[in-house]
């Protein structure tokens, strides 16, 4: 009933439509098209459509898109952030090299696990990361200046063995690292 006139209000009925997913009304379909409201069925339908679009692309286009997406994870981090990430990546590679001699039959597993952890942690490895960042440079998404100042220099600095340059007296004591 209407508050002012006392007459019953007409209920607005949503027009039903047939789709492949959980979208059942024209209003929901318009929200999917606009990508404005975030409801579970809207999110599902949007992702499903994007997936259908991506699956329609060629394998080569998908591979290049993936390479660019990985390369963009290295952009905008700052010198210190890349340096710290590179230190951890270098440490994990050193750990892998240290574990391999005693691994016997688990060598491949160790390599896969350590490399997976480097990728999962989004660490900046100067060798592996250079491939993706150089791809961005060739596509003119990133500049050479960014590559050297924002990725290569902090990445290389973080993965260097600084012990010979430390100038500490530890090298002179028996039982210390060499």
Summarize the structure.
With about 180 residues, the protein is mainly alpha-helical.
What does this structure look like?
By secondary structure, the chain is mainly alpha-helical. The protein has 2 domains: 13-56, no CATH class; 59-165, no CATH class. Helix content is 58%, strand content 0%. It has helices spanning 26-34, 40-55, 59-72, 79-99, 107-120, 126-138, 144-159. The model is unreliable at 167-178 (pLDDT under 50).
Give the topology, please.
Blueprint (H helix, E strand, L loop, with lengths): L25 H9 L5 H16 L3 H14 L6 H21 L7 H14 L5 H13 L5 H16 L19
Helix pairs in contact: 1-2, 3-6, 4-5, 4-7, 6-7
Largest sheet: none
Taken together, the total number of domains comes to 2
Overall spatial form: elongated
Radius of gyration: 27 Å
Percent of residues in helices:
55-70%
**Tally of extended strands?**
0
Mean pLDDT: 75
Tally of helical segments: 7
Structural class of the secondary structure composition? mainly alpha
Low-confidence stretches: 167-178
H/E series: HHHHHHH
Note the gap between the termini: 89 Å
**Percent range for β-strand residues:** under 5%
């Amino acid at each position: 009933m209407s508050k002012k006139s006392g007459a019953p209000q007409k209920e607005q009925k949503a027009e039903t439509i047939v789709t492949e997913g959980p979208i059942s009304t024209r209003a929901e379909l318009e929200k999917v098209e606009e990508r404005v409201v975030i409801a579970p069925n809207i999110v599902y339908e949007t992702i499903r459509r994007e997936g259908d679009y991506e699956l329609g692309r060629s394998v080569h286009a998908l591979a290049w898109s993936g390479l660019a997406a990985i390369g963009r994870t290295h952009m905008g981090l700052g010198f210190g952030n890349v340096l710290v990430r590179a230190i951890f990546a270098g440490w994990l590679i050193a750990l892998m090299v240290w574990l391999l001699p005693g691994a016997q039959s688990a060598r491949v597993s160790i390599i896969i696990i350590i490399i997976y952890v480097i990728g999962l942690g989004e660490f900046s490895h100067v060798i592996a990361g250079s491939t993706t960042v150089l791809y961005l440079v060739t596509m003119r998404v990133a500049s050479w200046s960014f590559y050297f100042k924002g990725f290569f220099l902090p990445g290389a600095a973080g993965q260097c063995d600084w012990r010979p340059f430390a100038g500490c007296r530890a090298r002179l004591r028996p039982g210390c690292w060499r």
